[in-house]
Design goal:
Layout lengths: L25 H9 L7 E3 L6 H9 L3 E5 L2 H9 L6 H12 L10 H6 L2 H16 L5 H13 L26 H11 L8 H10 L15 E3 L17 E4 L9 H4 L1 H6 L19 H18 L6 E8 L7 H12 L2 E8 L21 E9 L2
Parallel strand pairs: 1-2, 1-4, 2-3, 4-5
Antiparallel strand pairs: 5-7, 6-7
Helix pairs in contact: 1-2, 3-7, 4-7, 4-9, 7-9, 12-13
C-alpha cells in the first residue's frame, strides 16, 4: 500500500476539506484490512473530517461517526454522499443566482474576499441554510465550499483552488491578525468565480456517483460522552477506530471560526469550547474519555469488540498520553488493553505547516488496541 495516500488522486474525496487535526488514511485502512473477514460495523466517536468513515466506505463496510463540531460533521457526511459533479454545480449555480440578504462589512471580510466573490459566497451560505431537505448533492456542495473557503493564493488566478486571500488551508487565522498580515505583505483577495473554483475541485474527485454502503444520517452531530447519543447507533458495532482530541487542545472551535460562519455562525471569532471534552485538568479529561469507552461497551452487543485509538500529546503541554489513555480505559472498565505501539508515521505537529501558520513541533503519538473484557 502506498505510504502517501493523501496525494493519491483515487482518494481525493477524503481530502475534500483539509482539517487541522487529521490522522493519515493509512491508519484506518490498515486496521480495516486486518478485520475485513469479520465484515465489521465501524464506529468513530471522534470522527473529525471522517477519515475512518471514508476508509470504511472504500472497503465496503458500514460505518457511523459522532462529532460535536458541526464543521467536522458537515465534512464527514460528504464521505458517505453519492451524487454527480454536474448536480452539485447545478445546485451551486441555482443558489448563487439569488441575491444574498446579508454581506459582512468587517475589515476581515473586505480584505479576505473580492467583493463579487464574497457576494457569491453569501448567496451560497444563505441558500444552503434555507434548504428544507438535505440531499447528498447539497452535502457535497457544502463540504466542497468549506474546503475552498480559505487557503494559499495561486500565482495564476485561472488555477485558483481557494476563494480567499492568503490563508492556511486547515484552520482560520484570527481576523485582526489576518488583516494586519495582508496589509503588511500587500496581499489582495483574488477576484475568483466560486463556480469555477468548485468545478475544478470537484473535477478532481473520482467516483462521486459510486454508491455508498452507508448514508449521511450515519454521521451524528452530538456529544460522544452522552449515553443518549448511542441510542441512534446499531447494536452490532464491532470495530472502533478513532483519535480523540489531545489533552490541552482547546482551540478546535476558534481554529475553524470562518467555516463555522459559513454554516450559519457569527461573522467574528468568539471563544467557547461548546460540547467538547474538558481540558481543565487531566483527571476530568480522563473521566470524559472513559465515559465514551463505557458508552460504546454498553451499546455494542458484539462478541468481538475491538477498540483502536491513536492518541498523543502536544509538545507545549506536559502530559503523558500513554498514562492518560490507559487510565481512561481503566476508569471505564470492561476493556483489556492488548497493545501500545509508537505511531511511526505520526507527524501531526508539523503536517499542517504552511505559509501564514503557527510553528509547531511534531507530536508524539501512540496506537492503542483494546478489546472488550471477557
Amino acid at each position: 500500500m502506498s505510504r502517501n495516500l493523501a496525494y493519491n488522486s483515487r482518494y481525493a474525496l477524503n481530502a475534500i476539506c483539509p482539517y487541522f487535526t487529521m490522522f493519515p488514511l493509512e491508519f484506518p485502512f490498515k486496521l480495516l484490512k486486518k478485520h475485513k473477514q469479520s465484515r465489521p460495523i465501524v464506529l468513530d466517536p471522534f470522527c473529525g473530517r471522517g477519515t475512518t468513515i471514508y476508509a470504511a466506505r472504500e472497503m465496503g463496510f458500514s460505518s457511523w461517526g459522532i462529532d460535536s463540531s458541526p464543521i467536522a460533521v458537515a465534512i464527514a457526511k460528504a464521505k458517505l454522499a453519492t451524487t454527480r459533479k454536474e448536480h452539485v454545480i447545478t445546485l451551486a449555480e441555482k443558489l448563487v443566482a439569488k441575491e444574498p440578504k446579508e454581506i459582512p462589512q468587517t475589515a476581515f471580510f473586505s480584505n479576505a474576499y473580492a467583493r463579487e466573490t464574497l457576494k457569491q459566497l453569501c448567496a451560497l451560505r444563505e441558500g444552503l441554510m434555507r434548504l428544507e431537505l438535505e440531499t447528498d448533492t447539497s452535502i457535497l456542495l457544502r463540504a466542497a465550499i468549506l474546503g475552498c473557503l480559505h487557503g494559499p493564493l495561486n500565482k495564476n488566478i485561472v488555477n485558483a483552488a481557494y476563494f480567499s486571500n492568503q490563508m492556511p488551508r486547515t484552520f482560520s487565522t484570527k481576523p485582526d491578525y489576518s488583516v494586519q498580515y495582508w496589509k503588511r505583505k500587500e496581499l489582495f483577495a483574488p477576484k475568483v468565480n466560486v463556480i469555477n473554483v468548485l468545478d475544478r475541485k470537484l473535477s478532481r474527485i473520482l467516483g462521486l456517483d459510486t454508491e455508498s454502503v452507508g448514508k449521511s444520517m450515519q454521521i451524528i452531530c452530538a456529544d460522544s460522552r452522552t449515553k443518549a447519543t448511542y441510542n441512534k447507533l446499531p447494536e452490532d458495532i464491532s470495530l472502533i477506530i478513532t483519535s480523540p482530541p489531545y489533552y490541552g487542545m482547546r482551540t478546535y472551535i476558534q481554529d475553524q471560526w470562518l467555516r463555522l460562519w459559513f454554516l450559519g455562525g457569527p461573522e467574528d471569532l468568539y471563544y467557547t469550547n461548546g460540547e467538547q471534552i474538558a481540558h481543565n485538568g487531566q483527571e476530568t479529561f480522563i473521566k470524559d474519555l472513559a465515559s465514551v469507552w463505557e458508552n460504546i461497551n454498553k451499546r455494542s452487543t458484539s462478541n468481538d469488540l475491538h477498540l483502536y485509538v491513536r492518541f498523543g500529546s502536544i509538545p507545549s503541554i506536559k502530559s503523558d498520553p500513554k498514562k492518560i489513555l490507559i487510565s481512561s480505559l481503566e476508569e471505564a472498565g470492561g476493556w483489556d488493553l492488548i497493545s501500545v505501539r509508537n505511531a511511526s508515521t505520526a507527524h501531526a505537529g508539523n503536517r499542517q505547516a504552511e505559509q501564514m501558520t503557527r510553528n509547531s513541533e511534531a507530536a508524539v503519538e501512540y496506537d492503542f488496541h483494546a478489546v472488550r473484557s471477557c
